[in-house]
């Protein structure tokens, strides 16, 4: 009885600590792809936070039950609210601040939303390839991070090996194989060159300050491609402007001394610079066929499985419906079809459908000029909604 009382007092105290926290707590790690998006947003928006490891006991006992899935980033706000998912963390603050990172212009708004998807879904292959296929340069550095994600307790080494093997396997299921390696490198180098040229003009995607798309794109370009030894060196040598952007995105100020006569806003007149369209043209080469293939695959799966409304549309890695196959430059790729890609695309579609006809026309012309004309027409047969920290299948339209 007494111990039950002590336990409940302890639980209440813990809860109070959660509630009365002086700052936001970001459960994240430096080597985690998706952590980079939320961290950079908090830094740029001047939102105070401390970064915590999921290795803390408190994460398991208090945060995870609310987060529902053990993914990072997960934020515990100063009020004790738990938010799992980088985009949801950003949305939480965007709504409260009047959407400072969402450009108002039609073209800029949609392009920003697209770069958010491209960052979280469109660069997984180069991110995984350049982390896991260069062990001579990367292994010790990567292992340091995986090891220190675990508490110093018995079984730490084994757990580290297990986690690393799991992510090596993830590279395979995202489509990184001996057959696709050459293509992945060629596409990435082309992308890097185009993005580097863009940053010759401006410090951010849409001008003089970061938009939602900058934060999304940062994920793979920071944790993996801009930090792991082999790809970081590649980026420094081949694309110093991109490397500077990665650095800049992790600083609170504008950090653009190399741009003389810098402005402080998104570009005027809803301008999307030609240099950024050139980046989208490169991205489209695999993003477009993969989005089509993944939608077809998931739609077939939905037709067969008919998940109840509210069923989670997200799980641990490899719990996705399966892999979709598509071809790029004559090379076949099989990659996990993740509903999250389509969940994020829904946001771009919502922005588009809220536009008047003239603005829709301007966005369509822009997307067509980049080989992305069909993108906003690719749909799943079921919408995805977020509730209780999970993406969930909505009601079937025929139900
Ligand atoms: N949709 C989530 C994805 C987060 C995510 O998958 N994070 C990775 C680390 S970069 C993770 O925690 N993986 C652990 C797992 O899948 O079990 C987001 O954007 O925050």
Backbone CA Rg? 21 Å
Query: What gap, in angstroms, lies between the N and C termini?
Result: 50 Å
Enumerate the distinct ligands: glutathione
Q: Trace the largest sheet across and list its strands.
A: 2-1-3-4
Helix content: 55-70%
Q: How would you state the average pLDDT, rounded? A: 93
What is the SS-derived class? alpha+beta
Form type: globular
- Provide a count of the helices: 15
- In percent terms, what proportion of residues is strand? 5-15%
Tell how many strands the DSSP assignment holds. 8
Low-confidence stretches: 1-17
User: For the report, how would you describe the main beta sheet?
Assistant: 4 strands, mixed
Give your account of this protein's structure.
There is one protein chain. By secondary structure, this protein is α+β, with helices and mostly antiparallel strands. It has 2 domains: 21-96, Glutaredoxin (3-Layer(aba) Sandwich); 106-393, no CATH class. The protein has 15 helices and 8 strands. It has helices at 2-19, 35-44, 57-67, 86-96, 106-122, 124-132, 135-147, 156-173, 181-201, 212-224, 229-238, 240-248, 274-305, 339-353, 357-369, and strands spanning 24-27, 49-52, 74-76, 82-84, 323-328, 331-336, 384-387, 390-393. It has a 4-stranded mixed β-sheet with strand order 2-1-3-4, sandwiched between helices. A two-stranded antiparallel sheet has the order 5-6. A two-stranded antiparallel ribbon has the order 7-8. Strand 3 (74-76) and strand 4 form a beta hairpin. Helix 9 crosses helix 12 and helix 11 (229-238) crosses helix 12. The longest helix has 32 residues, at 274-305. The chain is globular and about 60 Å long. 42% of the residues are buried. Bound molecules: glutathione (GSH). Glutathione binds at residues 32-34, 70-73, 85-87, 120, 316-317, 340.
